[in-house]
From TrEMBL:
PANTHER family: ADENINE NUCLEOTIDE ALPHA HYDROLASES-LIKE SUPERFAMILY PROTEIN. Residues 11-170 form the UspA domain. This is UspA domain-containing protein. Pfam families: Usp (PF00582). It comes from the Eukaryota. Gene3D superfamilies: HUPs.
Length: 178
């Protein structure tokens, strides 16, 4: 991208990261094909040509009420249980983002990570809009029609609701499971 006067503008790219290999393939694709291409067009290095934001969404931990005992007395999970689940989510998020940040660091690409809480589809679109992201990148898990109908597809939702260009990166044909 260029500003007036021929100066290069820094592109802000958000890559959604989850536990799927598709999201990591998308990150590697962005680094190898987009960030590197941007650097070779100008006279700058990849580390000075834009920013990659790695976004991971943790699901909200809900306090559910379970009727138990005579008369349907309610049981609420203790704070210890809820805190334990939250801690497990945080540890998983930290591990995923550390892996993604290492990939960026190894390729000399500037990256920052953000952790969002809530519905992945909505949170990714909202964060990308608020951060004024230039390009939103999502990996494709290759869900079949039936699974996509019941589970919903984050990439499908973002393709219809994101306010910026979106790129859905599919893994090579041989690595997709049928």
């Amino acid at each position: 991208m260029e500003e007036s006067g021929g100066r290069r503008m820094k592109m802000k790219v958000m890559v959604a990261i989850d536990e799927s290999e598709g999201s990591f393939y998308a990150l590697k694709w962005v680094i190898d094909n987009l960030i590197t291409a941007m650097a070779t067009v100008g006279e700058s290095s990849p580390q000075n040509d834009g920013m990659v934001y790695l976004a991971h969404v943790e699901p909200k931990v809900q306090n559910y009420v379970y009727p138990i005992g005579p008369g349907g007395a309610a049981f609420y999970p203790t704070t210890v249980v809820v805190d334990s689940v939250k801690k497990a989510h945080e540890e998983r998020s930290a591990a995923l983002l550390a892996r993604a940040l290492k990939i960026c660091h190894d390729k000399l690409v500037k990256a920052e990570s953000i952790i969002l809480n809530g519905d992945a589809r909505e949170m990714i679109c909202e964060a990308a809009d608020q951060m004024q992201i230039d390009l939103l990148v999502l990996g494709s898990r290759g869900l079949g029609t039936l699974k996509r109908t019941f589970l919903g597809s984050v990439s499908d939702y973002c393709a219809h609701h994101a306010k910026m260009p979106i790129l859905i990166v599919k893994p090579p044909q041989h690595s997709r499971k049928h």
